[in-house]
Amino acid sequence: MKKLFVKTFGCQMNVYDSARMADLLAAIGYEPDDRPENADLVILNTCHIREKAAEKMYSELGRLKKLKDSRAKGGGSMLIAVAGCVAQAEGEEIIARQKAVDMVVGPQSYHRLPEMIARISRGAGHVLETEFPAQEKFDSLPDERSDCGPSAFLTVQEGCDKFCTFCVVPYTRGAEFSRPPERIVEEACRLAANGVKEITLLGQNVNAYRGIAADGEAWSLARLIGSLDAIKGLERLRYTTSHPRDMSGDLIAAHREIPKLMPYLHLPVQSGSDRVLAAMNRQHTGDRYREIVARVRAARFDIALSSDFIVGFPGETDADFEATLQLVRDVRYAQAFSFKYSPRPGTPAAALPKQIPEDVKSARLAQLQALLDKQQAEFNQLCAGRTVPVLFERAGTKPGQAIGRSPWLQPVHVDNARNLIGHIRDVRIAQVLSNSLKGELVVQNANAMAGSC
Ligand code: SAH
Ligand code: SF4
Ligand code: F3S
Predict the structure, then answer these.
(1) pLDDT 10s digits, 355-390
(2) Residue list, ligand 2 pocket, CB within 6 Å
(3) Cα of 47 to ligand 3 centre, how many Å?
(4) Are the C-beta atoms of 445 and 388 separated by less than 8 Å?
């Protein structure tokens, strides 16, 4: 077997794609290895969302070039492929900037990797594939998946038609595309048969899912979740990432009606200022977002809310930033991600006047993160002394330690644990740490108050 090393940057969709590339390449004799020094093929699956993310790729390529050169001196060889969103956005430029790169492949074309490798072995030099044949890609992927732990990602929707003025995704991932529901249910059944207990449905705008079934009917995400609910062995369902515009009534109702649908919603708002939201082309206001949150909470009172925020969007005033802080105070998040605005080439916001100085962005980010951290600590504190069901996913760093997730996606550690991976067990939360919970297993049938926090 040849050795494959894949390094993944960016979002969960890239994590899913990396696993699928490994499945695809297994069929032509590549096995995964966790060290680039051993690899015959290295794939960097890249992200273009912020400038820093793209720069990381070039510094990684510099390191790989040295490895490739020393391999060549020893009479060996190494292929380097750049996949993902930087590949899509920069294409040929990557090869021009780093000659050691052999292949550039976009997020919708990676099913062509085996053929690209064959072309290189026939002496084709550099190879580039950046087309958008989304359905062809899914149809070409192998049925079997080898990456299956107890919790798996499953991409159901790709691309984005929203064109927020700061964002590269519509350009790197293309137009919104939903996989047919039958294909998704089949993939979920295979995952469950392989011992997967939890599936997270993925999409850049997953709640805009509209899959056309064989009978021509369009399925919403709620209908898809309802259908996955019936799969035996599957205990937990999640979905991410959602846009407020597509938070439909049936999806909100699913949080009330489907116990397997976990009480967690990642609903990015970006800003609390209506003026900034309009300039971002988010197509909702702060109050509309608050109203959606209220409806979701009415359906599932204990839902953990998460979000993404951008500070320092062009023209953002102190008053606009204060509106963001006020929205955070009103919503009370369990968790969130926040970023300094990063101008991206080709996006409308990059050309706007009144770009915000770096020191102002940094100060606002620190203030927002302090508030979000405080809310996260308060949310986690609600679990102290409570018993919660935990799906154990992996061994911890300490011997005998196991790590899993609560329904609210909090990491939970348990010591002196045996045979827990892949099982859902009741855990009494003994200690609330800054980003995780520590607990003890509850002896089964001992009046467990599952799901009470
Ligand atoms: N589809 C999701 C987000 C995908 S990108 C949504 O609609 O919300 C993930 C996050 O990266 C975004 O929510 C945003 O907060 C952040 N992001 C995107 N472009 C950015 C930019 N140019 N600068 C800083 N953060 C950005
Ligand atoms: Fe980017 Fe906006 Fe699309 Fe999300 S909805 S991927 S932020 S353009
Ligand atoms: Fe990054 Fe592309 Fe995901 S830009 S966030 S890897 S969709």
Answers:
(1) 999 999 999 999 999 999 999 999 999 999 999 999
(2) 160, 162-164, 167, 169-170, 204-205, 243
(3) 5
(4) no
Task: DSSP letter for 215, please.
Answer: T
- Ligand at shortest distance from the CA of 271: 1
Instruction: Report residue 316 CA to chain centroid gap.
Output: 27
Q: Compute the Cα dihedral for 289, 290, 293, 295 and give only its sign.
A: negative
Q: Tell me if the bond preceding 165 is cis, omega within 30° of 0.
A: no
Query: To the nearest whole percent, how much of the chain has pLDDT over 90?
Result: 87
Ordered structural domains, the chain, with CATH: 2-133 (3.40.50.12160), 387-441 (2.40.50.140)
Chain-wide mean pLDDT for the chain? 94
Atom 19, ligand 1: which residue's CA is nearest?
167
Give the residue among 373, 444, 376, 443 at the shortest CA–CA distance from 408.
376
**Residue 449 pLDDT grade (very low, low, confident, very high; cuts 50, 70, 90):** very low
240, containing H or E segment: strand 236-240
Token pair, residue 388, equals: 């919660």
Separation CA 376–CA 296 (nearest Å): 19
Question: Is 125 or 165 the better-scoring residue by pLDDT?
Answer: 165
Report the residue count for the chain: 453
How far is it, in rounded angstroms, from Cα 12 to Cα 6? 14
> What pLDDT is recorded for position 452?
37
pLDDT in tens, 222-238: 999 999 999 999 999 99
Amino acid (one-letter) located at 48? H
